[in-house]
Write a structure and sequence with these properties.
single chain; 2 domains; 8-stranded antiparallel beta barrel; two-stranded antiparallel sheet
Length: 222
């Protein structure tokens, strides 16, 4: 090979630069982009065999080496990975699923409460008689299916009953709360009763609490 011609060690291309570089000077091959050190002395311009001029390919300050360069100037910096747009969509579906799950749990709780309340109400419906002694009249409580509360008594002499509506009741679990109506007047020792708490102890027994009293009632068998 002539000393006025440079040969790329990578692709074997023969280069005829306009000005021969100094020995050891870095030169870039215009064909494959490989950078290599010149091994020939500096000479005047000589044209390439195919009559095309190739200028000295000296590395520019802001030039970026090709990714296929195999020398020490190759850029090994890792490329930044693009964020996948599907991540946001995934979190959106996760959020929607969480909201739906919470809604299902709330509905399930309400259904269980309604089922439990319905079972208590069905057991509570009917008449209940006071358990104990000391009363001249047998006190009777009555709970209707439509949520009405009635109170009255039965005479021990002739067995006649007198029952009146005093309010309404609501069931929560195994307990019920009786609200005395505004037009009804129910009092003991000049103390007005506005609310009565009822707890279902068994299938045929309840506890009734009002003011400072705590009484038991048993269901009247039909």
């Amino acid at each position: 090979m002539s000393q006025d011609v440079l040969q790329c060690p990578e692709c074997d291309a023969r280069l005829r630069p306009a000005t021969m570089p100094e020995p050891g000077q870095r030169v870039r091959c215009p064909k494959c982009g490989t950078t290599f050190a010149a091994k020939t002395p500096r000479h005047e311009a000589i044209r390439r065999d195919d009559d095309r001029d190739y200028e000295d390919e000296r590395p520019r300050a802001r030039s970026t080496p090709r990714r296929d360069d195999r020398d020490e100037e190759e850029d090994y910096r890792p490329r930044r990975r693009r964020k996948k747009s599907g991540g946001g969509l995934l979190w959106l579906w996760v959020g929607i699923g969480g909201v739906v799950l919470v809604g299902l749990v709330v509905v399930l709780i309400l259904v269980l409460r309604s089922v439990g309340g319905g079972a208590t109400k069905s057991k509570l419906v009917g008449r209940w008689e006071h358990v104990g002694t000391g009363l001249s009249v047998a006190q009777i409580l009555e709970f209707t299916e439509d949520g009405k509360f009635r109170l009255g008594g039965r005479s021990p002499l002739d067995g006649k009953e007198s029952i009146m509506e005093f309010g309404s009741y609501k069931v929560s679990g195994k307990k019920a709360t009786i609200k005395i109506g505004e037009r009804s007047h129910l009092s003991i020792n000049s103390q007005r009763i506005t609310e009565i708490e009822v707890e279902l102890v068994g299938d045929d027994e309840i506890r009734v609490k009002y003011l400072s009293f705590d009484e038991k009632y048993r269901k009247v068998k039909k």
